[in-house]
Amino acid sequence: MLVFVLRRLAQALVVMLAVAFIAFMLFQYVGDPVLNLLGQDATQEQRAQLRRDLGLDQSFLVQFGHFVANAAQGEFGLSLRQGRQVSALIAERFPATLELSLVAALLALALGIPLGVYAALRRGSAGAQLVMTLSLLGVSLPTFLIGILLILVFAVQLHWFPSFGRGEVVALGGWTTGLLTLDGLKHLVLPAVTLSVFQLALILRLVRAEMLEVLRSDYIKFARARGLSDRAVHFGHALKNTLVPVITITGLQLGSLIAFAIITETVFQWPGMGLLFIQAVQFADIPVMAAYLCLIALIFVLINLVVDLLYFVVDPRLRIERAAAAH
């Protein structure tokens, strides 16, 4: 297990260095930070002085080394648009995005797994057909359209939920959350549902397909021949083996929820990292864009590592194979 973790960490380091290089190239080829900071009216002397202060007069490798060292400490310089430390901006926005993504992921799992099992066990029934039809709509409709429809129905016509913003939040040290206030929960409902629809439909269809495949396997037939009840066969044997690919998809989709919540945050004006990134792109705020790219890559790397470790918990066959390979 230790060798496995060390190998994964080495791979993660290579990935992060590659992402850091791509983020660093943004500074080289997308706009001139000196021009953005000083404007058109600055003199040549002022520009030269700022280049020296920022280290832009040094060689490419030296600049990249400084960038990696600073990025490892969470420092990406000043936002060209707001004039504040990028790390402070990310720290302000990250709780909103993480909260939205986690609630959306929990919704997708809490509904997707049981509905997928139901669609597999009741295949051909009217209820299962309805579930599969709705799941097809979920994977087909674009996220922004789902968000607009939810706003139209539940915010404009029914007035049940607010249509934008995060609502009232509570500060817990350096962390902010809207889960502890009624207003914050009301603001969270529509964006969380919007963000979860695609993931829910994907998990539902995956669980159904894997469940049907597992139910056709030989060991399930053997379990039935032993006289085990349907409940024991379905939930004690079939579902457990179905969860292995579900863990993979769920882990990767959690990273996708955090990375690609941009559309949902834009539709609902949710003050998270996605909205911050959109504003950074509009104003060519390179430090914010680079920080966002590195943070999302780090999240994906960590999630992949956790998913690989969960394999050993869920699937005992992997532990047996590892032990056999060691001998």
Strand order of the largest sheet: 1-2
Order of helices and strands: HHHHHHHEEHHHHHHH
Detail the poorly predicted runs.
none
Number of helices: 14
Name the CATH architecture of the largest domain.
Orthogonal Bundle
Shape: globular
What is the averaged pLDDT score?
79
What is the radius of gyration computed over CA atoms, rounded to a whole number of angstroms? 24 Å
**CATH class descriptor name of the largest domain:** Mainly Alpha
**How many individual domains?**
2
Helical residue percent? over 70%
Span between N and C termini?
14 Å
- Count the strands? 2
* Strand coverage percent: under 5%
Biggest β-sheet description: 2 strands, antiparallel
- The CATH topology label of the largest domain is MetI-like fold
**By helix and strand content, what is the structural category?**
mainly alpha
CATH superfamily of the largest domain: MetI-like
Keywords: Cell membrane, Membrane, Transmembrane, Transmembrane helix, Transport
Family: Belongs to the binding-protein-dependent transport system permease family.
GO cellular component, one term: plasma membrane
Transmembrane segments: 12-30, 102-121, 133-156, 188-207, 243-270, 290-314
